[in-house]
Amino acid sequence: MTTSQPLSFAVFGNPIKQSRSPFIHQSFAAQAGLQLKYRAIRVEDGDFPRAVTAFFDGGGSGLNVTVPFKEEAFAMAAQRTARAARAGAVNTLWRDDAGVLHGDNTDGVGLVRDMVANLGWTVHGTEMLIVGAGGAVRGILEPLLAERPASVHIVNRTVERAEQLAREFADAGTITTGSYDDLEGRQFDLIINASSAGLHGKAPALPSTLVRERCCCYDLLYGSEPTPFMRWSAQSAAWAVSDGLGMLVEQAAESFFRWHRVRPETGPVIHDLRGVLAAAA
Ligand code: ATR
What we know:
Blueprint: E1 7-13, H1 21-32, E2 36-42, H2 48-57, E3 62-65, H3 70-76, E4 79-80, H4 82-87, E5 92-95, E6 101-104, H5 107-118, E7 127-131, H6 135-146, E8 151-155, H7 159-168, E9 175-178, E10 188-193, E11 211-219, H8 228-235, E12 240-242, H9 245-260, H10 267-280
Parallel strand pairs: 1-2, 1-3, 4-6, 7-8, 7-10, 8-9, 10-11, 11-12
Antiparallel strand pairs: 3-5, 5-6
Helix pairs in contact: 1-9, 5-6, 5-9
The site of 2'-monophosphoadenosine-5'-diphosphate has 15 residues, from helix 6.
């Protein structure tokens, strides 16, 4: 009788204790009838390239990469998908049979799938506001622009970072930029919060008048409780409000598809993960 080792996967980040990726990938594997190991591994600053090489040399099949290593993962990948090249960041790594390291970025497609397929929201034709201009926005901009919103405005505390993004993505769509003060009197159909203010318990300083009738508000952050931005959205009478849990599961599903060529069912996993978060609260 022969016993084969289960395929080995991991997510690298720092911090990593909070990662739900092992739960998500094990749930997908159970659906697909696959045996695999998936571990959350904390990597120290400066050790990322060595850790990646050691993981694949040791027989690892695929890696997810989270904060703060997505740019380093991008730099290491010899082959990048078009969307990863565009984002300048990689969250999914694998080696091909020739030993070449490939990188993809599944964050943006995960967000769009959650909004459009799961929540039933429309991106096409909307006047969209993106709050924040950091690495997270770089990852989601191209898939969002591909849905052809009517307009995209990026507001950021540091306006130059928003201007830089607008320049980099100018060929994919027209993006306007500005400060929080410039938002007075404006209204939007879709507001996406990609600022990390919520990690410090704060909602970004947005006027409640931004919310147009039937406006949808999406926070990339998630948790067992509504985030500060979600509370702001509800108080501003948004038509629909969501956190980023569905995006987390959808980006994982796209990574899973890359590695296994099987597209998992995400609905039950989003539901179960919601229960896990509530139980841990
Ligand atoms: P990420 O990878 O999550 O995008 P990042 O690149 O550090 O992380 O970007 C964090 C984003 O949250 C930035 O847009 C940041 O604004 P600045 O570019 O002006 O720093 C925004 N941010 C963080 N704390 C904030 C706060 N208290 N109020 C408003 N915006 C905040």
